[in-house]
Design brief:
The chain is an alpha+beta fold. It contains 7 helices and 4 strands, in the order E-H-H-E-H-H-E-H-H-E-H. The structure holds guanosine-5'-diphosphate and magnesium ion (MG). Guanosine-5'-diphosphate (GDP) binds near residues 54, 59 and 111. Guanosine-5'-diphosphate binds next to helix 4. It catalyses: a 2'-deoxyribonucleoside 5'-diphosphate + ATP = a 2'-deoxyribonucleoside 5'-triphosphate + ADP; a ribonucleoside 5'-diphosphate + ATP = a ribonucleoside 5'-triphosphate + ADP.
Amino acid sequence: MALERTLSIIKPDAVAKNVIGEIYARFEKAGLKIVAGRMKQLSRLEAEGFYAVHRERPFFKALVEFMISGPVMIQVLEGENAVLAHRDLMGATNPKEAAPGTIRADFADSIDANAVHGSDAVETAKVEISYFFAATDVLSR
Ligand code: GDP
Ligand code: MG
């Protein structure tokens, strides 16, 4: 087992649905600790930079528009195998394919508005965490 950190974003649709607390409870019940967090209105440049790996994909423009459509809640989660544990809680990218009881199955409406983001690997997580947080903002305990 490995103690890992991962980046989680509660996207504008889920913030608008007022389910930040319900999603946080799922993280905590699964043994993940919230070790940094902030609410933020992303600028277009910030959203484009964060999703730069998807820049050539047909859905890129729609993804950026969605991510800047309202505030997001961004957090760092820490725990054993946090990257995969968090992806398991999230469910599949397309909520229609997400397993029952996952965050996306319960709170997401479509593949565009799919409630949450989670890093897909430890190395990606390091880059994504440093995109939003200084090392001193992450308070392991
Ligand atoms: P994730 O890691 O499960 O979030 O999925 P990806 O990294 O593959 O894609 C990033 C985000 O782009 C997803 O969470 C969706 O919001 C969006 N996205 C991915 N695939 C599609 C698609 O086929 N159509 C649209 N409209 N959005 C997509
Ligand atoms: Mg991804």
